[in-house]
Amino acid sequence: MRWIALTSLVLIASCSSQAQTAVTDSSVITTTTISLERVFKNSCIAPDFDDCNLYGRDFSGAFLYQAQMSYTDMRGANLSGAYLRQAVLEGALLRYANFSNAIMPEVWMQDVQAADTNFSGVKFSIANLSNANFAGADFTGATGTANFTDSLLVDATFIDANLAGSYFTNADLRRAYFLRAKLTDVDFTGADLTDADLTDADLTDAILTRTILTNAILKGAKMPAGWTAP
Q1: Are 173 and 193 in contact (CB under 8 A)?
Q2: What are the two backbone dihedrals, phi and then psi, of residue 154, each rounded to the nearest 5 degrees?
Q3: Each residue of 117-150: pLDDT tens digit?
Q4: Predicted local distance difference test score (pLDDT) of residue 228
Q5: Which helix (H) or strand (E) holds 37?
């Protein structure tokens, strides 16, 4: 797989919320095992974008292992296919950003504002997406485990997603779309799934304690053993 490494990055001013950034050079890394030190060799800056203005920037295919992006403005940015293992994006502004097919194991995205953001095909693993705004976000075909505890997911799309073992505790999932989603062992404790569409979804061994399923569409869904409609 080819990863684009940002090898020369100039930060103008102090990289505050008003600062601008410019990529002055990039190179294609062909190896699949590469250290962060090699990616940023001979650069005076580590992958620290905290509080930066990266509005609309193109990071597609970028190697951003352990990148620090907390409270960064990345609205409309393109991170499709990026490698974001253990990246920290706490409190970041991500509306309309494109993370499609990004690799995101152990990513930290607590408190992000990511309404209408594209996460289709993303690969999660032990990802923290709690207390965040993902209203209208697209997680079509996303896979792996993620923690969406206390997050806003109204009108979010999870068609054909495989999020087995994930957490949606107390999440607001009104009108969410889970068509054919694999949701085995998922914890929906206290979640609101009012008007959600779970057609043909697999909820085997899912936890539905205090889960609100008012007017939810359950046609063809595999429900937990012993579950009965309230």
Answers
A1: yes
A2: -60, 130
A3: 999 999 999 999 999 999 999 999 999 999 999 9
A4: 77
A5: helix 36-39
| Helix (H) and strand (E) counts in the chain | 1, 6
* Ramachandran area for residue 13 (φ above 0: left; ψ -120 to 50: alpha; else beta): left
By the 8 A CB rule, do 202 and 178 touch? no
**What average pLDDT does the structure give for the chain?**
84
d(CA 196, CA 212): 10
DSSP conformation class of 223: P
Instruction: Determine the average pLDDT of the residues in 157-177.
Output: 98
pLDDT at 21 over 90: no
Look-up of token digits 């990148």: 67
Tell me the CA distances in angstroms from 164 to 15, 185, 186, one per residue in order.
39, 6, 6
CB of 229 closer than 8 Å to CB of 209: no
**pTM of this prediction?**
0.82
Longest dimension (CA), the chain: 62
What is the distance between the alpha carbons of residues 167 and 100, in angstroms, rounded to a whole number? 21
Which residues of the chain form beta strands (DSSP E)?
3-11, 21-29, 103-105, 123-125, 127-128, 146-147
